[in-house]
């Protein structure tokens, strides 16, 4: 295990009987992820992809010792599912679901927060430690195992980076998509802190985007706490203010969240900022020895 | 979803926040009629854009005749790309103090935040930039809502007139309730007016609803109809496609918001001007690509389209087949460049050879090609 | 404050919980009229006491004539000390299952608790005593309210028909909301009926409001008027005096709820029967003692009064003066024993010597004396 | 200090400018309690009984280092005052106010609970350590310092016991009135736990009453955890079911809260139950050596 997910992961899939849930359960199992249980209310006792389904997360945890949950539950019910996982003793909840109302997320994170449960997402591609476990929806084929930590607010853009890394002969320790929503459970700083203490990770690629101030906070944190090399990229530099570019979080409001501010913050913190993903990967190659 | 001022005020009233007497009218003659009843009035353009005051779109009128001429001058104007169809005609207030009050989401604390300032009635972004200490903030614990003592501290920190404190505290509570129960992204009153009789009113109102929560607010759906002003965006949203209309001439389609955003960056970087943002999401099924192309082509300014797809779990060659199928079923008269990456991307690109679709291997190459073709 | 069934159902309806069609009537003839419209009906006495079914105060009527005769038989009856003035005439239900659902305060967890059982329609106290495992419980965290997964667990634990689960879950949420927003002490539905068409209705309803929260519920004050049935209690509460009417003949007045309760115990222990509980609270000002005596004497059964006062921060001698002053201003025809303890109690008792008030040094002595005097 | 209040207490009086607040401030000061601040919104900068008044508890704490609060605020605002104290860093809140809506108390205790703040009451006479501090409304004159801990749900009934103890030459270590409401911050068990570890306390008198199951819980706790002698008394034995005898908490509903159940629970736990207060004090005298 590099960070968050790995061989120790015992996964319960919430919403396993849905189309997405079932498909990705198959994909995750095929990759070797230890999927121990599924959960859909009213569907307890059945099986999906050979995985036993339970009526509640509590029952799944009791029967299988699941410690990690992935959420494919539809948006109106997803926040409740996050809280159910936390109440059942799950320690890490990865919420893939897109379109959860923000105030539902606020409530769910208040709930998980006081129970010390980590949430990644929502509206994220999940987390993956190549060669150990994939807890998410990322295409496994493009990943190579290695020593570069990747953290990103975007899904497909992350795949693109990972693909370029693999093409360049570089590999990933853990890849974490933190999600594109304005309110998310795990931020850049949380992931950077984990990479900093992870022996497998030698450098970190951070894929930020416009909106919010997570990148600025990350820059300050890197300067104060991170000794490993971090390289950054900011997406959405051409986006006009006030327009929401798909990600609910990617919106420039007033002077907040501009790409200029983010680039400046990283540069002030000594973090090189690449102009393109190609350049980012090239810079990574210069800083990391390939094992 | 952004509401118009008059809609926001309807919501505020529902939650017990006082607003000035007024009526929304679409014809200038009706503005005179409202002014007959209300006396001295303010005529305010109803439009989804800030800075109305500076642009002369909020005007005092001393008489019904003046109200009519003010309304005539405003209705039909175009402001920041929006045509103004309506004005709100409101009784002018006897203002003793103007404050700023808002509830929104604070990403850093992952909670709602209340903001209050004695510097009301002016552009709050300016206040935030120049003297951020003038804006008092109180993060709201969702477990308890804003507590009385927190509101008292907020008012004290903002340095409001103590005589108005009780009235303002009452509005703060009601505003938060409206924010919470309507699933707002923003609820703002600027200015929050204290009259010389010490009554507290919302003289202006902004309200933005979290689109993701609309499913549980049937009572707000009436506002949705009125909210969309760009006809292509409206059509896209009816079809459930995330489309944002921009003012360039290169149509952009891709899978994944971050990827599309980055594609826009690439085109801009190479000197092109994107006509839109359009995310077709995971995979690339033929019918979805077809829908996307139809929507992008509704914009007559579009001179070329860049399709940027990452073959992820769905393999590149299958994606290419989907795209080919969609394009063949349509009569597309502009050049299309397809850039493909990820799993089996090279196989996918090979399938496009010999078709009208122009393959590209990198975003840079794709951007360069489509800009060149569009200019030709 | 306890509400009548029909009032509780008004509240439930306001929160979207379905109840059987029905009307409340005070004249038996009107019961026939309602039955004309509703067909087969149930005629239910409206009274603040449980056990109506066993007492024959809930009766099925097949025809309007029968509805009228049922109502005639019920109206005017006295049940557990309450005169029945009204009946609720409701459409009879096509019952598939009867459940029990309630929200109340759980002292141990210091939170609200939801209780659900498949054993509905019968005395829940009996179920609780005999098979407590048949009542599923879910403590509600006030920070979040009952969460969907908690309600699912509650329903599963109670062993309800899964086909009814969604409908019941919906009622659970609405019941909690009514409980919370109306500041209830108890909100109970027994039985919660599932019809053969799988609709879920509150066939009976109990609702008790926290008296301490009535100040913020002007909408419930109308129910308050109707709620009080004992005329002396009603008068006492109008004057703000905590008075509980009991059925003995020794009036009890004291300062402090615990002290008064203990005084009742003492009188009972010595073979007397208390006529009431009355707490005059801290100190013992003359006007308060006077009010208390007036109220206790409204009960014509009272043959003697025991005044038990602890001189605390107010000293015993001052208390004695207040009592004397109050008693002198009234024409009291029954014996009064005054027991006094605490700061300067002996000085206080000395002041009573030579007055019609009989002093006593201990509760035992006081109880013995007043019982003797009352019997004389 | 025996328990909860003593020489270390630095008290802020919330609602100090009200009639009750001002009167008891004077009484508490006269007893020697270290009253360092008062608080009433809008009255900051004034003084009551020589005590400086602040607009907020936060300001009072900052200026005076108050660590304990007593609440005389009217019922509609009292729960907010409790939360304000907890937010300002006060560690012990004693809520005298009577008539606070139960759901307000539920909310306030949720708030103080997650901050580790102790609340005594509401609707209680407070706590007093004779010779050190009085934080409440009990009549100080009747108290003698000694080694008997007293805990009670009632006010005046407690004074009566204390008075009898003093007349018998016995004294009190700390007297705690936990309050007569159905939902209270500090229960018998909490107080018993504190008395058990308090070197000054040699025996405990517990004055229970009908309603609830705090007495039964206390009995089980005493059997399992308390080695010091505990003596009990139950008030309200003659109360008919369903009638509320002044205390909102003192009501027998169904099979819950009957005096028989409470007496039986104590007896089963080896705790002697007195029939009268005189008897209770007499039993105490037999078990405690007078210092």
Description:
- The complex is a heterotetramer, with two copies of chain A (about 290 residues) and two copies of chain B (about 375 residues).
- Chain A has two domains: about 10-120, NAD(P)-binding Rossmann-like Domain (Rossmann fold, 3-Layer(aba) Sandwich), CATH 3.40.50; about 140-285, Rossmann fold, CATH 3.40.50.261.
- In chain A, helix 4 links the parallel strand 6 and strand 7 (about 120).
- With about 290 residues, chain A is an alpha/beta fold.
- Chain A has helices spanning about 20-30, 55-65, 75-85, 100-115, 155-165, 190-195, 215-225, 260-270, 275-285; strands at about 10-15, 35-40, 45-50, 50-55, 70, 90-95, 120, 125-130, 135, 145-150, 170-175, 205-210, 230-235, 275.
- Chain A starts with 10 loop residues before the first strand and ends with a helix.
- Chain B has about 375 residues and is of the alpha+beta class.
- Chain B has helices spanning about 5-15, 30-40, 65-75, 125-130, 150-160, 165-180, 220-225, 230-240, 255-270, 285-295, 315-330, 345-350, 365-375; strands spanning about 20-25, 40-45, 60, 80, 80-85, 85-90, 95-105, 110-115, 135-140, 185-195, 200, 205-210, 245, 250-255, 275-280, 305-310, 335-340, 360.
- The radius of gyration of chain B is 25 Å and the shape is elongated.
- The model of chain B has no long low-confidence stretch (mean pLDDT about 90).
- Classes of the chains: A alpha/beta (about 290), B alpha+beta (about 375).
- Chains in contact: A-B, A-C, B-C, B-D, C-D.
- The interface of B and C includes residues 142, 143 and 144 of B.
């Amino acid at each position: 295990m590099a960070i968050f997910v790995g061989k120790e992961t015992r996964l319960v899939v919430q919403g396993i009987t849905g189309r997405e849930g079932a498909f990705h359960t198959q994909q995750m199992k095929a990759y070797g992820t230890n999927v121990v249980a599924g959960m859909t209310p009213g569907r307890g006792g059945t099986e999906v992809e050979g995985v036993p389904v339970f009526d509640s997360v509590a029952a799944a945890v009791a029967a299988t010792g699941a410690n990690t949950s992935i959420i494919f539950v539809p948006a109106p019910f997803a926040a409740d599912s996050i809280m159910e996982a936390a109440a059942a003793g799950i320690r890490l909840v990865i919420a893939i679901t897109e379109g959860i109302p923000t105030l539902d997320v606020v409530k769910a994170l208040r709930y998980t927060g006081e129970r010390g449960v980590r949430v990644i997402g929502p509206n994220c591609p999940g987390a993956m430690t190549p060669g150990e476990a994939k807890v998410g929806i990322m295409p496994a084929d493009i990943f190579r195992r290695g020593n570069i930590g990747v953290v990103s607010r975007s899904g497909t853009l992350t795949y693109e980076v990972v693909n370029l890394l693999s093409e360049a002969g570089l590999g990933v320790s853990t890849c974490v998509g933190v999600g594109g929503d304005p309110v998310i459970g795990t931020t850049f700083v949380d992931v950077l802190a984990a990479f900093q203490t992870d022996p497998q990770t030698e450098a970190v690629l951070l894929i930020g985007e416009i909106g919010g101030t997570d990148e600025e906070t990350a820059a300050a944190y890197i300067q104060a706490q991170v000794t490993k090399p971090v390289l950054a990229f900011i997406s959405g530099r051409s986006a006009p203010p006030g327009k929401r570019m798909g990600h609910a979080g990617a919106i420039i409001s007033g002077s907040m969240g501009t790409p200029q501010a983010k680039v400046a913050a990283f540069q002030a913190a000594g973090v090189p900022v690449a102009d393109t993903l190609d350049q980012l990967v090239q810079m990574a190659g210069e800083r990391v020895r390939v094992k | 979803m952004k509401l118009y001022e008059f809609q926001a005020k309807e919501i505020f009233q529902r939650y017990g926040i006082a607003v000035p007497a007024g009526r929304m009218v679409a014809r200038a003659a009706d503005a005179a009629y409202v002014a007959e009843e209300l006396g001295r009035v303010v005529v305010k353009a109803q439009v989804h854009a800030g800075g109305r005051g500076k642009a002369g779109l909020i005007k005092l009128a001393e008489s019904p005749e003046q109200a009519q001429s003010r309304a005539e001058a405003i209705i039909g104007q175009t402001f920041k790309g929006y045509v103004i169809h309506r004005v709100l005609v409101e009784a002018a207030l006897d203002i003793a103090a103007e404050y700023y009050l808002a509830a929104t989401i604070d990403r850093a604390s992952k909670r709602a935040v209340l903001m209050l300032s004695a510097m009301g009635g002016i552009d709050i972004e300016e206040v935030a930039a120049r003297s951020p200490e003038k804006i008092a903030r109180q993060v709201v614990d969702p477990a308890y809502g804003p507590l009385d003592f927190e509101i008292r501290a907020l008012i004290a920190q903002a340095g409001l007139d103590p005589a108005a404190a009780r009235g303002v505290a009452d509005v703060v509570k009601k505003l938060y309730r409206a924010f919470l129960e309507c699933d707002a992204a923003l609820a703002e009153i600027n200015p929050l007016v204290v009259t010389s009789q010490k009554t507290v009113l919302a003289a202006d109102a902004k309200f933005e609803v979290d689109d993701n929560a609309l499913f549980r607010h049937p009572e707000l759906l009436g506002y949705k109809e009125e909210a969309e002003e760009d006809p292509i965006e409206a059509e896209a949203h009816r079809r459930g496609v995330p489309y944002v209309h921009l003012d360039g001439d290169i149509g952009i389609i891709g899978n994944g918001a971050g990827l599309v955003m980055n594609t826009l960056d690439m085109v801009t970087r190479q000197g092109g001007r994107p006509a839109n943002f359009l995310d077709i999401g995971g995979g690339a099924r033929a019918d979805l690509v077809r829908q996307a192309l139809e929507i992008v082509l509704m914009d007559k300014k579009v001179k070329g389209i860049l399709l940027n797809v990452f073959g992820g779990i769905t393999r590149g060659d299958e994606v290419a087949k989907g795209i080919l199928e969609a394009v063949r079923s349509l009569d597309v008269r502009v050049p299309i460049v397809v850039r493909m990456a990820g799993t089996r991307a090279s196989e996918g690109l090979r399938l496009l050879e010999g078709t009208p679709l122009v393959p590209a291997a990198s975003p840079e190459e794709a951007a360069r090609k489509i800009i060149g073709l569009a200019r030709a």
